[in-house]
Amino acid sequence: MEYISTRGNYKSVNSAEAISLGMVPEGGLFVPEEIPKLELAEIMEMKDQSYQELAVWIFNKFLSDFSESEIEESVKAAYQKESFPRSEKTPLIKLDQNTYILELWHGPTAAFKDMALQILPQLLVRAVKNLEVEKEIVILVATSGDTGKAALEGFKDVEGVKIIVFYPEDGVSRVQEDQMKTTGGSNTEVVSLKGNFDDCQTAVKNIFADKEFRAKMEANNFQFSSANSINWGRLLPQIVYYFKAYFEIVKENQVKAGNKINIAVPTGNFGNILAAYYAYRMGLPVNKFICASNDNKVLTDFLETGIYNIEREFKKTISPSMDILISSNLERFLFEVTDHDSSKIKEWYQKLKSENKFVIDQQTKAKIQHLFSGHYSTETEAKAVIKTTFNNFNYLLDPHTAVGVDSLNKYRQQNKDQTTAVIASTANPYKFSRAVLESLKEEKIEQDEYRIIEELNDLTAAKVHRGLRGLENMESKHQHSCDKNSVKEKVAEILKLSN
Length: 499
What we know:
With 499 residues, the protein is α/β, with parallel strands linked by helices. The chain has a domain at 92-109 and 233-472: Rossmann fold. It contains 21 helices and 16 strands. The protein has helices at residues 15-21, 40-44, 51-62, 68-78, 114-117, 120-130, 146-155, 174-181, 197-209, 211-219, 232-251, 271-282, 298-305, 330-337, 342-355, 362-371, 379-393, 399-415, 433-441, 449-460, 487-495, and strands spanning 2-5, 13-14, 30-32, 92-96, 99-103, 136-142, 161-168, 188-194, 222-226, 261-266, 286-293, 307-309, 357-359, 372-376, 421-425, 480-483. The strands form four sheets. The chain has a six-stranded mixed β-sheet with strand order 4-5-15-10-11-14, with helices on both faces. Keywords: Pyridoxal phosphate.
């Protein structure tokens, strides 16, 4: 299995190199040269396997330069009981007759990013070893809240790796910020950036593409990589849980093997829904993908019009992990639906950089709309869904998953499509306790976020995630900050780079 650039500007590489580099050094993202296409019979043979066995099966399809024992060891280390105490790593909760919630947040940091970021360090260390890379790997991460802590937790004290996380100041919840700033480990650094997530993400991408700075890094015996979903090693593990969810639904006799389901995903960077699309391309029976957005509805507008336009107001919302205007993984998706037309991708993304927008052709737009439906929720609508879902089902949603539920409801109302659906639940509700409690009580709450967690627990009896208990009493270990124009200088300072 070889990996190629979405912009046709780099040699093909094996999976170890794609994971080690993180993104294409010249700009662009690595994608598999070919997606393995599986027959239904082969897929359904796996329906009774554990999550770990399913992960090994899928990884073997894509990581052909890793030995089977390397993959098995990586999976075993990542999904051990200490990190994922439940026997079901991604529990599937039936909300009503034809709606399921796929809980992806039972890992150490209470977010879906754990499903990938517990295994990425395992894969990266083995990739670097196989490639005989002697330089120290520097992981640069831009986070809108959840990726940061999950990456820090995954890479903490991993030998031969340093990790630097950038997050938007005032753009994450108090709990998210405290989770990052209290992280231990001799190789972890956290930096608050005066700006929004797109500023963080753009700065990190620019550093990756800066040849002069990369040369300076190499002269100091460092090499960049990424833990964002621009890294194929981050995206690949997310494919696994969509197969697992389908098998559970089939075993419940909700659908027959081969019957299609709908998948709704709250997303800002388009990575989690892209993983579902890759599962579909492999053979998972899917009827429609519902792409759920908040008030920063750049993806909703794109799916409706074919115009990707970031020239708009950036809004801070109660679902901050989706407060994104530049959806990195959309590039991979467009590369796939244009049948690997790298010249189109290059042209569109040059226009995005120079004009803040691009327009896709009608054929590509029609192809996308056949499979994808975009919807969005206002904060008022998301809060209403949190309240009604708790009242009707005694089930507590976080604000991101609420957007997914609301978008699925809107899709169903508009299209009269009652196909059994799975909604990706991306975070534990206690990570966003203020928004959840305000939704239930329908009033503004000013008190400290940790007192809110206590009140929410008293009100709902929903269990507080272990990764959030006692957080307020932990010591803050990271004090770095910078503005969006001095990220490169901050990296150089942290790494003590010599000229």
